[in-house]
Amino acid sequence: VMGQRFRDEPAIFAEAQVRLAQHLVCWGPQPEEQYQALLNDGGIVVSTTWHEFQGLAIMEAAQRGAWPLVPDRLCFPELYPDAYRYDGTREGLYQRLAAWLQGKMAAPDRLDTSPWEWPLWREAYRQLLD
């Protein structure tokens, strides 16, 4: 469980930190070097957010090779094919994640993130600015 923490954090997070302690690699924000190392080793990156502008942390993890699993809301339907989305409910997340982890459903191929990367955008920006 890596990333920014907020003032109004649901109590379930404190409970999860205690109950899942033996399975956790990290909790909360990490120093840049550790953050990058953890991204490089990530397998599945999950978002449950209800407030997101672009999902940069998920994009960054996907660029490093993690399988994104994102809710079917906000910016995610525009960026991620159906195979990487769940219906946005707890049960939907649980079902998709369990299916991937237990081999009941093959995880999709690694996501092609090249449409988000600078080489593709460079020419478009060049044309706009000329």
Could you please describe the fold and organization of this structure?
This protein starts with 10 loop residues before the first helix and ends with a helix. It is mainly alpha-helical and 130 residues long. Helices cover 42% and strands 8% of the residues. It contains six helices and three strands, in the order ααβαβαβαα. β2 (67-71), α4 (76-79) and β3 form a beta-alpha-beta unit. The chain has a domain at 42-129.
Secondary-structure element order, N to C? HHEHEHEHH
Task: Report the uncertain regions.
Answer: none
The radius of gyration computed from the alpha-carbon positions, rounded to a whole number of angstroms, is 16 Å
Q: Kindly name the structural category.
A: mainly alpha
Shape: globular
Distance between the termini: 44 Å
Strand order of the largest sheet: 1-2-3
Number of strands: 3
**Taking all residues together, what is the mean pLDDT?**
91
Number of helices: 6
Q: What portion of residues is helical?
A: 40-55%
Please give the largest β-sheet. Answer: 3 strands, parallel
- Percent of residues in beta strands: 5-15%
